[in-house]
């Protein structure tokens, strides 16, 4: 199914220079980033206490190219009349993007996360949702081996990281490369950075009024997790809304993976990323 959606997306999507694309490996903070960027771009239309996020999942407000808009074979979505700037999401690697995106002046916000935390988050997500009914779930050890070997739905995670990392070096005005851990540690500064990057900086009046802090508080993991819309309901297929919110902690992998697994990951990162300038501390 994703193969057909990828073909349709690459063939039919027409980018606008004002588009904003949120990219990431799955379970790297995608849901959180959707909420943050939606709140940034829509702040002149919806005050925080009337935010559509109160009654809609972030995934229903910022849709994915391959998992939403182009998922149905043969269907071409009508995207021209979406509110500007249009905000999209994708887990596709950089080399698989539609050429119209690459050729446009649109902005990419890429979020990367400690791969060990990302793996554990993905593991629990798959355990909870069972995307393929009847399929045997791999053990944690088997799943980790597959993860390290690059047997993933969107390709090897190091290749994914490097694709957007290199794009950010070549075009820093078009690709913002964020660390999940930085957003957790200092959401206020990172929200301002994102707003500036997408061309919607906060005014002095907005900052004095505390709007940046309001967005940071409203879009905090615990706040989003405890909204009724995110505790109940189905996103699509078997995927439950609450499965997008487990813990969101930094370093939680230590409760699940052995020191030997962590050492294997460190060696893999050293082998794959040496010379790129990209450093991942785990």
What does this 3D model show about the protein?
With about 280 residues, the chain is an alpha/beta fold. The protein has a single domain (about 1-115, about 155-245), classed as 3-Layer(aba) Sandwich (Rossmann fold), CATH 3.40.50.300. Helix content is about 45%, strand content about 10%. The chain contains 15 helices and six strands. It has helices at about 1-10, 30-40, 60, 65-70, 100-105, 115-130, 140-150, 155-170, 180-185, 185-195, 205-210, 210-220, 220-225, 230, 260-275, and strands spanning about 20-25, 85-90, 105-110, 175-180, 235, 240. The strands form two sheets. It has a four-stranded parallel β-sheet, with helices on both faces. A two-stranded antiparallel sheet has the order 5-6. A hairpin with a 2-residue loop joins strand 5 (about 235) and strand 6 (about 240). Helix 10 (about 185-195) crosses helix 12. The longest helix is centred in the middle third of the chain and has 15 residues, at about 115-130. The radius of gyration is 18 Å and the shape is globular. It starts with a helix and ends in a 9-residue tail after the last helix. The relative contact order is 0.17. The model has no long low-confidence stretch (mean pLDDT about 90).
């Amino acid at each position: 199914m994703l193969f057909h959606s990828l073909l349709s997306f690459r063939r039919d999507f027409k980018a606008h220079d004002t588009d904003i694309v949120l990219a990431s490996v799955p379970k790297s903070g995608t849901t959180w980033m959707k909420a943050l960027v939606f709140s940034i771009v829509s702040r002149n239309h919806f005050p925080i206490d009337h935010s559509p996020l109160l009654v809609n999942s972030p995934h229903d407000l910022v849709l994915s190219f391959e998992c939403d808009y182009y998922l149905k074979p043969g269907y071409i979505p009508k995207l021209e009349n979406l509110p500007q700037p249009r905000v999209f999401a994708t887990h596709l690697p950089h080399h698989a993007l539609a050429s119209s995106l690459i050729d446009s002046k649109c902005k990419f916000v890429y979020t990367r996360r400690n791969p060990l935390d990302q793996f554990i988050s993905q593991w629990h997500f798959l355990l909870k949702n069972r995307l393929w009914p009847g399929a045997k779930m791999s053990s944690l050890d088997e799943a980790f081996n597959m993860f390290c070997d690059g047997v993933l739905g969107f390709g090897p995670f190091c290749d994914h990281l490097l694709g957007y990392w290199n794009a950010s070096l070549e075009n820093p005005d078009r690709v913002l490369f964020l660390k999940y851990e930085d957003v957790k540690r200092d959401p206020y500064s990172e929200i301002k950075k994102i707003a500036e990057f997408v061309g919607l900086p906060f005014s002095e009046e907005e900052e004095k009024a505390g709007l940046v802090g309001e967005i940071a508080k409203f879009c905090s993991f615990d706040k989003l997790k405890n909204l009724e819309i995110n505790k109940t309901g189905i996103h699509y297929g078997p995927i439950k809304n609450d499965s997008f919110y487990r813990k969101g902690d930094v370093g939680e992998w230590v409760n699940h993976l052995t020191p030997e697994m962590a050492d294997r990951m460190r060696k893999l990162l050293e082998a794959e990323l040496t010379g790129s300038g990209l450093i991942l501390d785990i």
